[in-house]
Amino acid sequence: MDQERERVSGREHAERIAGLVAGFLDDVPPLVPGEVALVGAGPGDPSMLTLAAVAALSQAEVIVHDALVDDRILALAPPTALFDYAGKRGGKPSAKQADITLRLIAHARAGRRVVRLKGGDPFVFGRGGEEVLALSLEGVRFRVVPGLTSGLAGLAAAGIPATLREVNQAVILATGHAGTGEGGLDWAALAATGQPIVLYMAMASLGPIAAALIAGGLPPGTSAAVVASATTGREAVVVSTLSRIAEDAAAAGIDPPAIVAIGEIVAVRARLIGTARLIEAMQ
Ligand code: SAH
Questions:
Q1: What average pLDDT score do residues 7-28 get?
Q2: How many whole angstroms separate alpha carbon 60 and alpha carbon 72?
């Protein structure tokens, strides 16, 4: 009897949740013809999408998307939607940024409801700012749908708190794209802040970047972690020290996309995971 009651109330609850979520989706103002929604898809797993992203995708007539978007996310588009692939990946043939912007403008001028889908948050190292600037200059209507950025969501997924009261008062999100060469960051200046650093697009230059941070004063034994394909079924975490992280990530066969976290926030992970195991063992 009790089991039967639980089953019924479980189903009722599921229906209530589905109804509430449908209501949230309905409350998102619909895309209008000729409008471009710049949408953040989050770090990877479909469960990391916002409801605003789901609403925009479900109404899209054209989706201009990057390489890293999961097929299950693309499946939210209507069956009649057109997919316009604009993938850009280091070292591989890629659509030029100017071409992508022109394509967005052309789709909008053709009166389509356009979703420009980007990984993570569209305004964090994603050229989203440049794209909406171009759209606004052309008088194209647009909206921005924020997404969970991989540099923060990826840390949380891996059990690394971005801030801890007794450890840090800031967290630096930086790109490793230009490495230690021309146009790269002043790594010694970042090291001097003593605050944790989270790097995007840094795998190709991780060795030289780590060396530059050490030369800038960070102890070689500073905790460091690489989190690859965060939130997806392929998520992989390598924890090491600043002086060894590049080598250890390579030895573990880590593939991009990956973020790198450097600083004592990383060391908390071992304590958290240790505590979680302890609690599990006690139950
Ligand atoms: N706009 C994106 C970042 C684009 S730059 C965002 O807010 O997340 C691309 C970089 O993001 C990759 O090189 C990698 O450093 C990081 N990245 C994206 N998805 C990731 C994931 N699932 N796990 C780890 N890093 C990821």
A1: 93
A2: 15
Which class for 143: exposed (0-12), middle (13-18), buried (19 or more C-beta within 10 A)? middle
Using the mean position of ligand 1's atoms as its centre, give its distance from the Cα of residue 79 in Å: 28
- Check pLDDT > 70 for residue 63: yes
Whether residue 91 is predicted with pLDDT greater than 50 in this model: the reply is: no
Q: Give, using CA atoms, the residue closest to atom 11 of ligand 1.
A: 200
71-77-79 Cα angle (round to 5): 100
Place of tokens 């394909």: 229
Q: What is the mean pLDDT of residues 251-258?
A: 96
What is the pTM for the complete model shown?
Answer: 0.92
Between the CA of 282 and the centroid of ligand 1 the distance, in Å, is 37
* Domains within the chain, CATH numbers bracketed: 31-148 (3.40.1010.10), 151-272 (3.30.950.10)
Atom of ligand 1 nearest to the CA of 43: 22
Q: What is the pLDDT of residues 92-115, one digit of tens each?
A: 556 688 889 999 999 999 999 999
* Active-site residue set: 66, 88, 201
Q: How far apart are CA 35 and CA 142, in angstroms?
A: 5
The sign of the torsion formed by the CA atoms of 139, 119, 151, 218 equals negative
39 Cα to the center of ligand 1, angstroms: 15
